[in-house]
Design a protein that fits this description.
Keywords: NADP, Oxidoreductase, Pantothenate biosynthesis. The protein is an alpha/beta fold and 294 residues long. It is built from 11 helices and 12 strands. It is 42% helix and 16% strand. The structure holds NADP nicotinamide-adenine-dinucleotide phosphate.
């Protein structure tokens, strides 16, 4: 029998996963903050409509499910926690679909009994002004190769969202974190991926990434010296108008995930005694851009 699934946070990533499940007849329960009748995903010429309604009252979560995909922003975990209470039983697995390397430590305190697995979300998805979500790449997740990941693998089997299991999840997660950290520079310039074509931005990005790499290695990630260059080359290969979710949040005046995407490097660097001068400049600027005052 297919596992029962709920998606908490039907935004860009949550809608993509909900649509992938719905397309193969495994329509999830949808739990959000804003009431809506349906979700809509656009992929090229395809349009997938996921029937709702989006539930907005955690007191009416309607009982435990086998699997929760938690796709709220890291800044929204506290306020979404009542959903976890309503949807989790002793055997529930919560798969966190977020950026960052602290997913388990941030979500686990909100669970009693349920297991939590982190993920790396590889695909770009963008909310559009008409309420639909535009999937701008191949939907793909990486999960740790652990028993609890099996239920998520099973739920997404045969869907448009592929799942890889990583033996060394720490390295994969930190590699993605490095990509997220440098993408944060787009918030400071108000520009998209095209800005990495500039030699001065490429040079700054490489220096920042080398600093992040040192912290990642201290955290146990096994990543080669080539990673900073690969990441910068990646941004240079994207369409010039490709943004990042932290830039979309900045443009919309929403809170920023600066702490989980950038602050973590200075925090973990400090814990290991590694100097992080570039982070120490970037992080307060991102924090002020997101949180003010002013
Ligand atoms: N978008 C991407 O391309 C991308 C790629 C890789 C990783 N990520 C990461 O994936 C995570 C999700 O990002 P996203 O872009 O999907 O964000 P998003 O579009 O803002 O989606 C978040 C969703 O959570 C909902 N929400 C907020 N508070 C809630 C609550 N208390 N209870 C239930 N739902 C709540 C929001 O509702 P409202 O509709 O009311 O705002 C929204 O639907 C982030 O960590 C992001 O960094 C994103």
């Amino acid at each position: 029998m297919d596992p029962t699934v709920a998606v908490v946070g039907p935004g860009a990533i949550g809608t993509t996963v909900a649509a992938a499940l719905h397309e193969v007849g495994r329509t999830p329960r949808i739990c959000g903050r804003t009431a809506r009748e349906r979700l809509e995903l656009r992929v090229g010429e395809d349009r997938v409509v996921v029937p709702g309604p989006v539930r907005i009252d955690p007191a009416r979560a309607a009982g435990a499910v086998d699997l929760v995909f938690l796709a709220v922003k890291s800044t929204q975990i506290e306020t979404a926690a009542p959903w976890l209470t309503g949807l989790c039983g002793a055997d529930t697995v919560v798969c966190v679909l977020q950026n960052g390397v602290e997913q388990v430590s941030m979500v686990a305190p909100h669970l009693s009994g349920a297991r939590v697995i982190p993920s790396v979300v590889w695909f770009p998805a963008q909310a559009r002004s008409d309420g639909s979500v535009w999937l701008r790449g191949q939907a793909r997740l990486t999960l740790p190769d652990a028993p609890a990941s099996r239920v998520a693998l099973e739920a997404l089997r045969g869907t448009r969202c592929s799942v890889d299991l990583a033996m060394d999840f720490t390295s994969v997660a930190w590699r993605k974190l490095l990509q997220n950290a440098v993408a944060g520079l787009m918030v400071l310039t108000g520009r998209r991926s095209g800005m990495f074509a500039r030699a001065d931005i490429a040079e700054l990005s490489l220096a920042y990434l080398r600093e992040c790499l040192e912290v990642a290695r201290a955290e146990g990630a096994v990543l080669s010296d080539d990673v900073p260059r690969e990441i910068v080359d990646g941004f240079r290969s994207y369409p010039a108008d490709m943004g990042t979710s932290i830039l979309a949040d900045r443009e919309a005046g929403r809170p920023l995930e600066w702490d989980t995407r950038n602050g973590v490097v200075s925090r973990r660097g400090r814990a290991h005694g590694i100097p992080t001068p570039i982070s120490d400049l970037v992080v307060p600027l991102l924090a002020a851009a997101g949180d003010g005052p002013g």
